[in-house]
Amino acid sequence: MALSDLRREMVLSAIEEYDKLGRDAFLKTYGYGPARDYFLVHDGKRYDSKAIAGVAHRDVDGRPLRAEAFSGGNATVARALADLGFEVTRPGDVTDERSPEGLLRKIGTLKTAASATPGARKRHQPLTLLWALGRAAQGADRLVPWKDTSSALKSLLREFGHPGDGTHAEFPVLRLYRHELWDFPGQSDVPDASGGPAQRWIQTTQPLNGLRSWVHDLVTDSSAVRARIVLRLLDQHFHGVDHDRLLAATGLASQPPGTSPLNDVTVPLPDGTPSPGRRTVTTNRVIRDSTLAEQVKLAHDHHCQICGIRLMTRRGPYAEGAHIRPLGTPHNGPDEPGNILCLCPNHHVLLDGGMIVITDDLVAIDAVTHQPIATLRTADGHTLNPAHLAYHRDIS
Predict the structure, then answer these.
(1) Distances in whole angstroms, Cα of residue 344 to Cα of each of 287, 307, 320
(2) Could you give the angle at the alpha carbon of 368 between the alpha carbons of 396 and 349, nearest 5°?
(3) Contact assessment for residue 311 and residue 318, using Cβ atoms and an 8 Å cutoff
(4) Are strands 320-323 and 311-313 parallel, antiparallel or unpaired?
(5) Preceding omega of 256 cis (within 30 degrees of 0)
(6) pTM
């Protein structure tokens, strides 16, 4: 009955069953309580370490260990799993799974199926999440009747899914349920996300469904958290897609792309000496940020990534979306998260004018003195593309 008898393939088998059943059902089936201090981390996901070790032991003598038959902790379960090459977190280094960081990590470990398009992955789960995030942004109810979910997802899949991948809405929500992001309140017999039984269960049950309540609360209460998730989904799953059109279709373009409050400003010059007289100059500095750039600014809560300033106007906080590799001919930079910075107007002008360049380790450098100005502020979910940074350095 020693934990030293465990083998790595036994633990992987228990992890596979945990993923299939979901955390709550797995713990209930084998009589374990939720872990508090020690978690096994595999493929970016956390597992209750004692339960995994106990269930894995069934491959040693034919039956899983009961929770009361052995103790958990650093000297027993953690050591046994670490000896097999697994990562085990200890008290003090566990991130709350229901924190913004935990949610972003969970979003980053979505397992999507291979697409009918060679080399691509299906977009069903990411599209489902974007649609739910759009509803949260608009203050809509968390739970939706199945017919409404199905109709919305089929429309999005037809427009933004890969050709040949189908428009079945049942499978992505069931997979998100197993990934502990989706909810079917009051349902205890939720099937696996495959085949006719899954489709029949949903068609027969017609369940209310939506994001888990803790997920919905996080993305409703914080536009920054919501935007970081949006940027991560776009960056990982929607290359080559018109992001502005996708954000509009999923309800994440709550207002038209922003325009600078500095547009068309009439500025009277100071009187000065009598000889020059007085004249009026009109400047036209038009900043029309894309819907995607608005998401980048939300992710940073409108703080300039170089100086950290957050400008407040009568309309609310103000920042600008700055493209690292310029859009249009001859640069042909893409409108994608990895090519956009959130900057104050001053640093936007300096970046566009080549007076500031950014190193691959995200240090802003004065292009004249070659002295560092600041290390860029970052936000989870928003990752800059080093290729665009290098291109900007080459043309500056």
Answers:
(1) 12, 8, 6
(2) 55
(3) yes
(4) unpaired
(5) no
(6) 0.71
